[in-house]
């Protein structure tokens, strides 16, 4: 029996959720359809762009994602405090980045003088939108409606594209977030034997994080950053270290499972070695990344100094690779 969404998603229970949407009628979200002899690879970019764009507007953070041939996974974090801190105008701007607003709201944006009744109605609308900005149901709806519309237009057909509602799973503690959800999601292409390792798993969050490291960035745009081990006054982010997470993904991916086709080759060097780091430099790098310091190769730091209005050569230097 289908359960009410309110019994599956409750911010009072946990802010973290693992969600999955699957296609129907042998529809291909992405990949290559052997029967139709047609490639749908370009659709991976559709959903990745939509996902990260919505994350920028909603107060919902993307912790992990993987876009597969006929389904996609996301691990989401509801950022309720962020939503509460938004001004009314910020709420309106975020919501209208994906919707058309009523005339009353347009007058509010323009700064027109509103009557007491109009102001009250305007505030009611804005508070409803504020609640939607932390709603996973609205978040997933705006992804799936957009992709279904684009795919049906491309396939020249109508009807359902998704297999009913998205499925959601509450993640109640740090271990569930890391092991049961994020690593599982990021390793989907490896387990499906369509990628040999996390760093070659296109359209996954783990590859985006690895690409960011190799581009001397602390975190890829649109993804919830790692904040380090839980402590007082910690910055907003996933409550463990990126270093530990990548090691977990690498170890988990090497485990052979009878129900899955693929795994990371056990003869392959550890992930950190494949990225060109030794343990000491990687630990220092991750510590600085988590603290928000300047991290980069010597070349990158030199090039950035004028933009940062700095003269001194400072920051942690990564090896030029």
Q: Report low-confidence residues grouped into runs of 5 or more.
A: 1-7, 285-296
Secondary structure class reads: alpha+beta
- Rg measurement, Å: 22 Å
* Largest beta-sheet characterization: 4 strands, antiparallel
E-strand count: 8
Determine the number of helices (DSSP H or I, runs of at least 4 residues): 13
Described by the principal axes of the CA atoms, the overall outline is: globular
| End-to-end gap | 55 Å
Q: Strand order within the widest sheet?
A: 4-5-1-6
Helices and strands, in order, run as EEEHEEHHHHHEHHHHHHEHE
Question: Average pLDDT across residues?
Answer: 79
Strand content: 5-15%
Oligomer: single chain
Assign a percent range to the helix content: 40-55%
Task: Please give a structural write-up.
The structure is a single chain. This protein has 321 residues and is α+β, with helices and mostly antiparallel strands. Helices cover 43% and strands 12% of the residues. The protein has 13 helices and eight strands. It has helices at 43-57, 80-85, 88-96, 103-110, 116-132, 136-155, 174-186, 188-191, 205-214, 242-254, 271-274, 279-291, 298-304; strands at 16-22, 32-33, 38-39, 60-67, 71-78, 167-171, 295-297, 316-318. A four-stranded antiparallel beta sheet has the order 4-5-1-6, sandwiched between helices. α1 (43-57) packs antiparallel against α6 (136-155), α3 (88-96) crosses α5 (116-132) and α7 (174-186) crosses α10. The radius of gyration is 22 Å and the shape is globular. 33% of the residues are buried. The model is unreliable at 1-7 and 285-296 (pLDDT under 50).
């Amino acid at each position: 029996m289908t359960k009410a969404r309110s019994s599956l998603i409750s911010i009072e229970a946990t802010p973290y959720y693992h969600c999955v949407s699957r296609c129907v009628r042998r529809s291909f979200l992405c990949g290559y359809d052997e029967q139709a002899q047609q490639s749908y690879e370009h659709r991976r970019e559709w959903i990745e762009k939509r996902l990260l764009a919505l994350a920028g507007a909603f107060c919902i953070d993307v912790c992990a994602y993987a876009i597969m041939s006929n389904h996609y996974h996301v691990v989401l974090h509801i950022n309720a405090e962020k939503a509460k801190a938004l001004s009314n105008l910020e709420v309106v701007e975020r919501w209208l980045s994906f919707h058309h607003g009523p005339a009353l709201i347009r007058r509010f944006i323009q700064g027109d003088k509103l009557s007491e009744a109009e102001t009250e109605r305007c505030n009611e609308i804005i508070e409803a939108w504020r609640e939607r900005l932390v709603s996973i149901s609205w978040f997933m709806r705006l992804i799936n409606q957009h992709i279904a519309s684009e795919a049906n237009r491309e396939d020249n057909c109508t009807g359902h594209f998704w297999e009913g509602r998205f499925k959601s799973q509450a993640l109640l503690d740090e271990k569930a977030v890391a092991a049961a959800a994020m690593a599982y999601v990021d390793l989907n292409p490896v387990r499906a034997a369509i990628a040999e390792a996390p760093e070659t798993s296109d359209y996954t969050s783990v590859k985006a994080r690895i690409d960011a490291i190799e581009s001397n960035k602390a975190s890829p745009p649109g993804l919830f950053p790692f904040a380090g081990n839980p402590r007082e006054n910690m910055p907003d982010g996933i409550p463990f270290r990126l270093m530990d997470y990548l090691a977990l993904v690498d170890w988990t991916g090497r485990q052979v499972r009878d129900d899955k086709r693929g795994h990371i080759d056990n003869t392959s060097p550890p992930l950190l070695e494949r990225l060109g780091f030794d343990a000491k430099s990687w630990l220092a790098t991750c510590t600085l990344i988590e603290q928000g310091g300047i991290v980069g190769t010597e070349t990158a730091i030199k090039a950035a100094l004028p933009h940062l209005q700095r003269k001194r050569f400072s920051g942690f230097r990564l090896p030029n690779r």
